[in-house]
Amino acid sequence: MKICISSSGNSMESVMDPRFGRCEFFAIVDTETNETKIIDNAAAKSGGGAGIAAGQLLVDNDIEVLITGNVGPNANDVLKAAQIKIVRGKKVSLNDNVKMFQNKELEIIEETVPSHSGMK
Amino acid sequence: MKIAVLSGKGGTGKTTVSASLKSSIENCQYIDCDVEEPNGGIFLQPEISNVYPVMVKVPEIIKDKCTGCGECAKACQFNSMAVVKGNVLIFPELCHHCGACILACPEDAMIEVERQIGVVETNSDESFMHGKLNVGEPISIPIIAMLKDMVKDDGNVVIDCPPGSSCTVVESVEDCDFCILVTEPTPFGLHDLNIAVELVKKLGLSFGIVLNKASENSKIINEYCDDRNIDILMEIPFSRKIAEAYSKGILPIEADADLKKEFGEMFRKIEGKVLA
Amino acid sequence: MKQIAVISGKGGTGKSTLVASLSQIVNNKMTADCDVDAPNLHLLLEEKDQQKWDYSGAKEARINYDLCIKCGICKDVCRFGAITEDIVINNLKCEGCNACVVACPQDAMYLEEVNTGWTSVSTTENGTFAHALLDTGAEGSGKLVTEVRKKIVPFENGEEWLIIDGSPGIGCSVIASITGTDAVIAVTEPTKSGLSDLKRVLDLAKHFSIPAFVCINKFDLNMDITNEMEKYCVEKGFMVVGKIPFDPLIVKALQEYKTPVDTGDQEFIDEINSLWNKVTEYLSQ
Q1: CATH for the stretch C2-41+117-284
Q2: If you placed Cys at C130, which of B12, B207, C7, C32 could pair as Cys (CB 3.0 to 4.6 Å)?
C-alpha cells in the first residue's frame, strides 16, 4: 500500500504540514517494501487550484492513503474519485504519523473545509 | 471624452471625486468599475431599472466522446480539471474562460456552457452603470469588460476604477482620454500615487492629480509633483465636515457650492489638455 | 504560532495604521504585509538584513518568429485581445492561458515564466517582517500573498503570533490573505459604503469558517451608522472589539512617518490594547 503525507520538510523526521494543496513536499511510503520517497509538491507553485493539481499528483503516483490536515472540497472531489482514503495526521514527524496510522490511531476524515478555490 | 479616476490604493476619495465630477458635468455617463465594492451608487442614488447577468463560458464534457486522454487538463494553466481513472472532473470556479481545453481536445468532446459570475446594473437612460461580482468569485475582468462595452461613444464618461494597479485597473482605464489620480498627503498616499503614476505612464495615458484631504502638511505630494512636472488639478481640503457628509452618503460638492464650481473648472482644464 | 489577518472591505479604512500599531504593541510576533496592491507597512519600518526573492507569478506567451508564418490563428483564439494584428504579444493583457500555444499550427508559440515582482523578509525593531511588491500592472496577487506568508513562516523563532495585513476587497488576494488563519479582524468606518463593505467581508470570513472580529475606525463620525453596524454584528454573532475615534492627530502622525503609538496617543494605545486583549482572550478559550 502506498501512503502519502503532506510535509513541511524533506526528511521523514520533518513535521507534517496540515495544508494539502500548498505544502512544500510529499513523502510517499510503500508499506510493503518500506521504501520512502520525498517529492516536491509542484502543485504548490500553481496560481490557483493547487489542491486539484496536488490531487492529480497523488492519482498519478497511485497513492491509496493520504495523511494530511485539511483537504478543500475541490481536492476532496479528486481524491474521492480516485478512491484515495484521507486520514487526519498530527503535527508530529512523518515517521510517527505513519506509525500511528499503522496502529490505527489516526482518524479518517469525511468532512472537508469550505472551498477557497479561486486563488490566483 | 472618457475620464478614468484611479488611485494606487483604496480610500483616497476616488469614488467621491468620480461622483462629484459626474455631477458637475452635463450629460455625463458614470461607470463604476470597482465591481468588488461598487459604492458610486450610494452617492448618486440611481434608480436601477436594468439588470444584466454577466456570463462566462466554461467547458463541459460530452461523455460519449471523451476517451479520458487528459489533453484538456494538460492544456489548462489554471488547474480547472483533473483526470482520474479516465474521467474528467471540471472545476468551473477556477476556469479563466480561455478555451484552451476546447482547442486541445483531440476528440471534439468538449463544449462550452454559460455560467453567471455577477451582474451589470443600470438606470433607465444608462447614465449610471455599475457591476457587481458575486462573493467568492475570483475573476472580475468579464464584468469590467461588459461595462466598458456599454460606454457611450459620444458625450462624456467618468469611469470609477478599482483600487490597486493590477489587471482590473488596466482593463478599466484602457481607451480613456485622461486619467485623474486621486491621492492624499501621507507617506502611504505618496507611495501608492507613485505606483499609479508608473501604471498610467506605462499605458501611455495623459494624467493629472487631485489632492484629497489637503492640509498645510501637503508638501510631500507637492514636492513629488513639482519634481516630475505633474499637474495638480485641484485640492480638496481635509475637513471633518466633508468626512461627516461623506459618511452620510453626501458628496462634498453638495455641502460646498465653491467646490462644485472647482470641479466644473477642473473638467474644462482637462478638456483643454485633451483637445490640445 | 497563531495567525491573525487584518482585512477591510475597502481600502483606506485605517487597516495598515492598525496593523502598524498592533505590531508595536504586541510582543512576540512577526508581521506580514500581504496587501500586495498597496504594500505600505515598510514605509514606517527600518528594515535590516533584508533577504529578497524574485517572484514569478505568471506565465506569458512568447513567439518564435523563425517558425511563425503569421497565419493569425493565435490572434483569433485569444480571448483576452493580447495578440495584435501584426502578431505581437501585449504582455499587459496576456493571461498565460496556453490557448495560442495549443492552437498554433507551426509550434511557434510557448509559455515562459516571467518575473512579476519580489518578496522579502527582514528584521525590524518590531520583529521579523515580510512583504512583497508586484510590478506595475502585473497580475497574480493572490499567489503572491501565499508566497509572502510562506516566506515568513520558516523564520519563526518561538513567536506566538503572525499578524497579517491583508489585501482589501473580497477577491483572490484577500481570500489568499485569510485562508488558514486563526482569526480575522475586519476594519471598517461608519460610512454608507462602510456597512455594505463590512457585510461582504464578514460573509467571506464566514464562508471560510474563520472567526471574525470587527474594529470600527472613526466611529464618532456617524453614530447612526456605528450603531447600525454594532446591531448588525450582535445579530450575526460577530464581536466588535474596538472603536477608534476620528482624530486628525492620527493623520498628522502618519505625515511624519509615525504611528499614533509613536506619538504617544494614550487614548488610541488603550483602545488597541483592549482590542488585542479581546481577540486573544477569545482565541485562548
Answers
A1: 3.40.50.300
A2: C32
